[in-house]
Amino acid sequence: MLFEDIQQKIQNAKSLDFGQILNASIELFKKVWLQGLIMQLIMIGFMIPFALILYVPLIMFGLLDATNPDALESLAPLALFFVMIAYVLFVFAMIVLSFGLKAGLYRIMKQKEANVTGSDDYFFFFRRPYLRKTINLSMSYFGISLVATLLCVLPIIYVIVPLSLLPVFYAMNPELSSSDLIKGSFGLGNKKWFITFGLTLVAGMLAQVVGMLMCGIGIFFTALFAIIPVYFIYKDSIGLADDDSDLKLIGENEMF
After folding, report:
1. Which of 29, 161, 170, 201 is least buried, going by the fewest C-beta atoms within 10 A?
2. CA separation (Å) from 70 to 75, 79, 186?
3. Are residues 145 and 163 in contact, defined by beta-carbon separation less than 8 angstroms?
4. pLDDT of residue 59
5. Domain ranges of the chain
6. Is residue 93 within 8 Å of 161, Cβ to Cβ?
């Protein structure tokens, strides 16, 4: 879809029904809750090695402190430098991983909603044609969030809506440039700010409450529900592909 067409559809977007989108989100959640759980497990699986890289040297430095404090004093600057580098790399990797997996999950939602058969490709946006764009968008996401946070409370409350739409824009329009995807998400976010914020807030609260009622661990099953409404906000405002060619392509790509 051309960016000019997206802009036109945003300008002419119809009014959205809060209850209808919430009900549609519940129905889609029934189809993709397992995929949401798998995404959470993938995130945890990637966190474990990074945690080991970060904490094992700290344990070694702690043992060195107990046995040879003088040696540790000379190594203290090196230890601090290592911890800072490891932490920055960890944050960077998790931001990119989270953004790419979320975009992949929206692509899977489109596939499941259309009943297209095929394996679930969680790492679709980490493939060679998309990896650089995934990294650029992840860093843009982080940079905008950081600037908004530094400007105190109100800016971050504002940008959280368009930023929540960025992964779904990317998932549905991977051919667009990073700047156009950001412009599109902010355009729709401005147009549908209140209903997007309200639906995201309600969905997030429901996901947490239901997850906690399931002995806490249930949050891994229900966390997905918090991000589903923005899929329907995009779909009902801009629409998906007019024909099924894109969906057929999804099924074909899954076979290779």
Report:
1. 201
2. 9, 14, 55
3. yes
4. 74
5. 11-241
6. no
Predicted confidence at residue 247, as pLDDT, reads 44
Residues 6+ apart with CB under 8 A from 14: 236, 237
Cα 197 to Cα 147, 158, 187, 219, distances in angstroms = 20, 9, 15, 21
- Residue in 250, 136, 150, 234 with CA at minimum distance from that of residue 191: 234
Quick one: DSSP state of residue 16?
P
- Cβ(168)–Cβ(230) below 8 Å: yes
Cα–Cα–Cα angle for 19, 98, 25, nearest 5°?
15
d(Cα 233, Cα 162) in Å, to the nearest integer? 11
With a cut of 50, which residues of the chain have pLDDT below it?
243-256
Q: Comparing C-alpha atoms, which of 28, 36, 40, 37 is closest to residue 229?
A: 28
For position 72, what pLDDT does the model report? 57
Q: 2 to each of 16, 159, 247, how far by Cα in Å?
A: 23, 24, 18
Residue 226 to residues 29, 143, 196, Cα–Cα distance (Å)? 10, 23, 11
Residues 6+ away with beta carbon under 8 Å from 3: 176, 180, 183, 184
Locate 145 and state its tokens.
Answer: 């969030």
Task: Find how far residue 112's CA is from the centre of its chain.
Answer: 18
Q: Give yes or no for a contact between 196 and 16, defined as CB atoms under 8 angstroms apart.
A: no
Measured from the Cβ of residue 136, the count of other Cβ atoms closer than 10 Å reads 16
CB contact at 8 A, 244 and 16: no
